[in-house]
Amino acid sequence: MRAAYATGAMLPHMRHTILPTWPHTSTTVHKLESERGFLAQPLTIVGHLAPDLDCLTAIWMLIRFDNAASAELEFVPAGTTWQNQPVDSNPRIIHVDTGGGRFDHHQRKARTLCSAELVRRAVAPYDAALERIVRQVCQIDHALAPASEMGFFNINALITGYNLLFPNRPRHVAFAMLPNLDAWYEQESRQIRLERAFAQRVEFDTRWGLGIAMESDDGGSSKLAYRHGAILYAYRDGHGWMGIAAQARSDVDLTPIYHDLRVIDGDADWYLHPSTRLLLCGSPKAPPRVPSHLSLPDLVHVIQGIQPGNRYTSLQS
User: Fold this and answer.
1) Are residues 34 and 75 in the same domain?
2) Percent helix, strand and coil across the chain, each to the nearest 5
3) Vertex 87 angle, CA 156 and 54, to 5°
4) Rounded to an integer, what distance in angstroms lies between the CA atom of residue 250 and that of residue 107?
5) Is the domain of 162 the same as that of 204?
6) Cβ–Cβ contacts within 10 Å for residue 123, how many?
7) In terms of DSSP bridges, do strands 72-76 and 44-48 run parallel, antiparallel, or are they unpaired?
8) I want to staple 68 with a disulfide (CB 3.0 to 4.6 A). Which of 41, 62, 87, 243 is the partner?
9) Are 58 and 117 a contacting pair, CB within 8 Å?
């Protein structure tokens, strides 16, 4: 069965196609791989039956990062090869996580290696988001992932569910997981951008404790702000949407700030959450009818009880 990833074709049960305009790895990387004659348009990608996260991630990377969208997907019992051919004897048949070849880690004893890592090194060694994903895949594959990161429902549970839904159709499992891996990649890419923006954050004092303000195309990050010790954080994103959020277990009450904003920024569509610890002017769930005209420093001034436009030395430090 042909992957048909680039053409938009779908399996009968699928209603999701993968966008054909995703960025690929750099031209330089592909040129270097091409000059080595490495992974030159494999026609068949072979994984093992009941594919797990490692196997599926390796398949996804070949499709996503190595122009293998038109490859056939085949599955064999774990440890074996396609039609019992010697592994890697045919450059147009790529085995992952099975067969003992270049993309199978089972003959190696390193606990930092998995099949996805072997594929990553070959097709996209300089992609930071991909490196983060594969590091987690390796931890999960070797049962080394911290228990705190394996919640009541996680990506392994999702794959188990797909294998239960399609016990004799591993291709269906693979096609179902491809969009999930794409989504994971987008999330990791966004997290990297947020971390870069967070490095330019502004820290300020509030009546409740440390506040943090950050501006980025992606908005703010409660995870980064709270990990840094902030009680609340304010942000402005690429749409001009703004927000203030406080830790759930704090005693922060943003109601006075909301009332101040209704006076200072009266035309804007500010919304105070019933918890009184979340104050928004625009979000993907509810784009504002009228965005705020305030800058991020203006919003920080309001939080501190200072009229926007007045100088405040902590913002300049």
Assistant:
1) yes
2) 40, 15, 50
3) 10
4) 51
5) no
6) 24
7) parallel
8) 62
9) no
Examine the domain organization and report whether 173 and 218 are in the same domain: no
* Same domain for 208 and 191: no
pLDDT digits (tens, 9 = 90+) for 111-164: 789 999 999 999 999 999 999 999 999 999 998 877 766 667 799 999 999 999
Do residues 174 and 38 both lie within one domain?
yes
Of the residues 159, 176, 195, which one is the last residue of a structural domain?
195
Q: How far is residue 94's CA from residue 101's CA, in Å, rounded to a whole number?
A: 9
Amino acid in the structure at residue 277: R
| Span 169-192, pLDDT tens digits | 999 999 999 999 999 999 999 999
**Is 114 inside any structural domain?**
yes
Percentage above 90 pLDDT, the chain: 74
Query: Any idea how long the chain is?
Result: 317
In this structure, the answer to whether residues 47 and 131 fall within a common structural domain is: yes
Number of domains in the chain: 2
Q: Which domain holds residue 233?
A: 200-316
For residue 236, what are the contacts with CB-CB under 8 A and spacing of at least 6? Answer: 215, 219, 242, 295, 296, 299
Question: Residue 80 region, left (φ>0) first, then alpha (ψ -120 to 50), else beta?
Answer: beta
Residues 144 and 74 in one domain: yes
DSSP code, position 84:
G
d(CA 229, CA 95): 47
Tens of pLDDT, residues 20-49: 333 344 443 344 344 444 555 447 999 999
Other C-beta atoms within 10 Å of 10: how many?
13
Angle at 204 between CA 199 and CA 210, to 5 degrees: 90
The pTM score is: 0.81
**pLDDT of 9 higher than 50:** no
Judge residue 244's burial from the number of C-beta atoms within 10 Å of its C-beta, 0-12 exposed, 13-18 middle, 19 or more buried: buried
